[in-house]
């Protein structure tokens, strides 16, 4: 079934099925993008359905869920926890095609948009391809990121990695278009699995949701938002904070987000004598998250595995200077010396120096960096992202 009889897919509203192996209530960049995409499309009048793992083996079915203020139809097959990971849930791979066929039997999809090539995204792509339903694929994955959670020996990890990318290529070859959040990420994907024409499309944010603070004040509050996992390297920022205590006696560090590394990071903070300066907020509600950005003075991200970093864009929309690792996609957002600084990945002294420059900048220089962040995030407006995906769904040229 390739379209609804009640509308013209070329011009009117569309029935869109999104496959997301991670979605609300998960907190990570891929889930947040899928939520914003689904809500944004629903807000434009499209009929949006999301296929994503259930919250448990018992809590599954078809639900009407409010996502970013919009009601979305969410199809949740039984979900299993992957216990080496702090939140990951998955549907049984050998049942994924069954769930996909059942959904597409019930929903007259005009297009399928896969957010991963792992389980549900892989299965829904294959079933849609068999039925002649066009597929758009977005890659949020650096497969290397999941190796910490396989619990396999390193030699087997390499084999799993090769098999995963080989299967990703087969999945992407069934898609009308393949996208990823940045040009750097597109180049990475093209080189890794030998495909061409990957389209960079920003995940996008609604900058109207964030409130910059231009008041003059002492600058000493450092902020990180994200999952507390090994590739984020939050310990590098902790060590940099410890080096700045003498120069900036009232320096503090707010860490927003949960993850399997929280206990290790708390122990590191204690070892460095920073326990009274570090606040681990854990996962917070959206209004608390926006307040955290508004109260901070600089956003610090030491991650070496960002395909875009929604949190960095949110910080920029909040008018924060940003200091980040010169790795993967962060240089697309952080322009060294303009809206903040890049530092050599893993180099604690370099990070401390760059944080010092921001926190001790005079008011005119600090305000200039704030404005540069606001200017730089303009091109990542969510409405532009939605416009681009609508064209892809309809087969229109970009």
TrEMBL record:
Transmembrane segments: none annotated. Pfam families: Glyco_transf_4, Glycos_transf_1. It comes from the Bacteria. Residues 27-206 form the Glycosyltransferase subfamily 4-like N-terminal domain. Keywords: Glycosyltransferase, Transferase. Residues 218-369 form the Glycosyl transferase family domain. GO terms for molecular function: glycosyltransferase activity. This is D-inositol 3-phosphate glycosyltransferase.
